[in-house]
Design goal:
The complex is a heterodimer of chains A (250) and B (230).
Chain A lengths: L2 H14 L7 E6 L3 H15 L3 E6 L1 H9 L6 E3 L4 H8 L9 E6 L1 E5 L10 H5 L5 E4 L5 H12 L3 H4 L3 E4 L2 H9 L5 E5 H4 E2 L2 E2 L3 E4 L8 E7 L7 H10 L2 H9 L6
Parallel strand pairs in A: 1-2, 1-3, 6-7, 6-8
Antiparallel strand pairs in A: 3-12, 4-12, 5-8, 5-11, 9-10
Chain B lengths: L4 H34 L5 H13 L2 H12 L4 H8 L9 H27 L2 H8 L4 H12 L1 H16 L3 H7 L9 H10 L3 H36 L1
Helix pairs in contact in B: 1-5, 1-8, 2-5, 3-9, 5-8, 5-9, 6-7, 8-11, 10-11
Classes of the chains: A alpha/beta (250), B mainly alpha (230).
């Protein structure tokens, strides 16, 4: 009696499943968390395919992929790690492409703390400034480069606190433990606006472009779902979403 | 095996941190363990549970809340600021506070067990001989429960050396201040410097093994004379 609707539901669920029923597993650099969630939601809605997302630092994903992690697509925060995977024959040949070019912002959770003349930064009127570890994260390297161009490395170095990745750097600033810090513009931007605290979008000429590459991993070589997702990421629709989070697209 | 200057700084910092934490933990943990071992109060269960929380909580929970609480808007942060101390995250003493909370059960529980094993009798006898409470503690409890104290100190020290999640959340990776060995290893792995990561990791494995070996050796030695008494 009550079983019938359940059976119908299960059957309809089975029939509605797409050809490739298993979700595509993707590893995503933490700076791209917000846009990727939006992109995947759009993609799942239009295609009915499922995507399982893992977010973290590119270095950790690199180590995991080299050691057999089941990811099919890797969205790195830089070009170096996808290139290293390419050299190690871990990816489908010629699948590497730049999906986004990151932008850096100096941000404070306090309104009015950062002004366009960068008075606070230059005067050192703060206790701690957060940046991602320059050795590990491309956004950290870019932040260090900006401070060098502004001749502020020596003046600020004693106040640096370093996040392991850009997500942790954001966390240090958003909790107010560091009054200001260099974060990814994508983390503080939604729908084309920065809606919290105060910020300075760092001019692109102050740092090397943060090109972020994606690759189709060997695990995904025979997955139509993985290929469909990559095609979607390169589509006009996806590019406008990516740009609305402050990235440029190639 | 060779260590870079940054590796050595991380090792030295880790030793300083673990020693400070062990010292503070013995001072704080002993009265708590004493009370837990001897009380019949309704509060025993809740207090023992709070002390043991770090055993089951993910370190990220502890780290996340400490970051909030010790930050400028947090309760602890406002308190330390009102004392003119600034805020604790990203400082050596911030790590000490976090590690004391995190390693507390490893120190309290062995001491508590040792005191419970003593029973009331030796203390009652000492009291009839007019030994005061401090006298009873230093001349009865401390010598008889010594294995418990040694176990507590070793475990507290070793557990602090092995700490990672909490330090990562509130440390900020500052060389010589909060970049401990576990974080340094993580950095090496993230930067794909696997050679350096191996060197430090092998050292950690050797250290941990020797600590535990020493501890079990000690317990076996203590077990035989204790056994005769019963």
């Amino acid at each position: 009696m009550q079983l019938l609707p359940v059976i119908c539901l299960v059957l309809s669920g089975l029939l509605a499943r797409p050809l490739w029923a298993d979700p595509v597993r993707i590893a995503v650099a933490s700076n791209f968390t917000l846009p990727m969630k939006q992109l995947v939601a759009d993609y799942e809605k239009t295609t009915g395919n499922k995507v399982s997302m893992s977010f973290g630092s590119s270095g950790k994903f690199y180590a995991q992929i080299m050691n057999g992690a089941p990811f099919q697509v890797f969205f790195s925060a830089d070009q170096a790690k996808p290139q290293a995977l390419e050299r190690a024959n871990m990816i489908v040949p010629n699948s590497r492409f730049t999906y986004a070019i990151g932008a850096l912002a100096l941000w404070s959770a306090q309104p009015g703390f950062i002004d366009t003349q960068l008075y606070t930064l230059r005067q050192g009127n703060f206790r701690k400034i957060a940046l991602a570890n320059p050795k590990l994260a491309p956004y950290g390297a870019a932040a260090a480069e900006v401070l060098a161009k502004l001749n502020l490395v020596d003046a600020t170095r004693a106040k640096w606190v370093q996040g392991e990745n850009i997500a942790q750097t954001y966390q240090f600033v958003s909790t107010g433990n560091a009054e200001l810090g260099f974060v990814a513009l994508s983390q503080i931007m939604s729908h084309g606006n920065v809606d919290r605290g105060s910020s300075w979008v760092v001019p692109a000429e102050l740092y090397q472009p943060i090109k972020q590459d994606a690759v189709l991993l060997n695990n995904g070589a025979h997955s139509p779902g993985a290929q469909a997702l990559l095609a979607f990421i390169r589509s006009e629709q996806a590019r406008s979403v990516i740009e609305s989070y402050g990235y440029q697209t190639p | 095996m060779s260590f870079s200057e940054a590796d050595l700084a991380a090792l030295w910092l880790t030793l300083r941190l673990a020693s400070s934490v062990t010292f503070v933990l013995l001072l704080l943990g002993t009265p708590i363990a004493w009370w837990l071992a001897r009380t019949n109060s309704w509060w025993k269960g809740p207090v023992a549970s709070v002390v043991a929380l770090p055993l089951v909580l993910p370190p990220t929970v502890l780290g996340f809340y400490l970051l909030m609480l010790m930050g400028p808007q947090g309760v602890i942060g406002q308190f330390t600021q009102s004392l003119g101390l600034g805020t604790l995250p990203f400082t050596f003493w911030g790590l000490v506070v976090a590690s004391v909370l995190y390693s507390m059960p490893f120190v309290v529980q062995p001491i508590q067990n040792a005191i419970e094993a003593l029973g009331n009798r030796p203390l009652e006898v000492a009291a009839t001989l007019r030994a005061g409470p401090w006298d009873r503690f230093f001349s009865i409890v401390l010598p008889l429960a010594r294995p418990g104290f040694i176990t507590a100190a070793v475990l507290g020290f070793a557990h602090t050396v092995g700490e990672f999640g909490v330090v990562l959340m509130i440390g900020g990776n500052i060389p010589g201040e909060t970049r401990v060995v576990s974080v340094q290893i993580y950095d090496h792995v993230e930067a794909l410097d696997y050679g350096q990561a191996h060197t430090l990791s092998l050292l950690m494995i050797a250290f941990s093994f020797l600590v535990l070996l020493g501890l079990y050796g000690l317990q076996r030695k203590q077990a035989s004379p204790m056994g005769k008494e019963h």
